[in-house]
Amino acid sequence: AALYVRANQDCSETASAPPPRRAAQKIVDLYGKPEILFFGPDEGTAEYMDWASSHARARGAFFWKAFTTGKSQSIGGIPHDVFGMTTRSVHQYVLGILRKLNIKEENITKFQTGGPDGDLGSNEILISKDKTIGIVDGSGVLYDPKGIDREELRKLASKRQMINQFDVSKLSEKGFRVLVDEKNVKLPDGRIIDNGLTFRNEFHLEASADLFVPCGGRPEAVDLGNVHRLLDAEGNPRFKYIVEGANLFFTQEARMRLEKAGAIICKDASANKGGVTSSSLEVLAALSFSDDEFAKHMMVRDAANPPAFYRDYVSSVHAVIEKNAELEFECIWREHARTGKARAILSDELSYAIVKLNEELQRTTLWDNVALRKVVLVEALPKLLLDTLDLDTIM
User: Which residue intervals define the domain Glutamate/phenylalanine/leucine/valine/L-tryptophan dehydrogenase C-terminal in the entry (predicted)?
Assistant: First the structure.
């Protein structure tokens, strides 16, 4: 990761340098103007965000504050896991389904992969009010058909601990926990689990609940070859509603099969945009402020007492994430009702339409219309940022 970051900075700096240096470095610059790079956290790279930003600053990159997102609060970042940014959008899709079907969240059962030790898993536990009956994480399987003790789950989520730390005395007589290193475990119904690891890896294919929220797990854990195991003997889906927090847990073919069977599925590409939205707004603040302003308003030296702007800006980011998620959910729900198309297909079509519109707008001269530009930016930018910096400064 470090070499990748350095290589990108080498290319970016050289491409922005005077022609003699570009020629000396044998860089072909087809863009023709300075380029600003942004890196966001993903699986296994979150720990590099702080280093990469500091490295960009040491190399003199003027955009170092925005070079990486999701970085530590101490250097002006808005860490996704601390503030549950991705979960904010995922949960809006859950609430959207329940709102449309007139169901109270407290009355549904839920199963989730990804446990209380992870970003999505922990925040899903902390934000929800359902009756969670099953959790699968790196340590094993936790299940209780009467509902897993919510306070115990919240305690683990707050400490970011796996379910192997769960107090099993708080399970009902029908509940159980099977860890990956256990063998020959007898379940309350008399079934013997020969291998805890195999049981953990396949439990999502035999569990049932109203709602399934994958917050972790292997990519393509459900594909065309095993999706039939998510259907009961009558061909009905074991999960009525599926909202994808983790990326790529289902293949598109599996989604289509489940939707055909009657499941309501909200695809990852739509449901988990909260993290990307947070990163975009973090970049916006970083590029808008001078270094001194950034230090004053965005750098948190005491987590218990952050700058007032930082605290309120995080709340603004939450509001934007939730509003955008609600709007996209409503769009997909409405178009499904109108056209009958699978929601997974509509999610792709909407994503394509957004990208296409962006490309088309870049080919117009609308940006040159300053009055229109200001109207759009006032509508789009967080009010808090506009109140702190005037629009001309941001532009």
Answer: 77-340
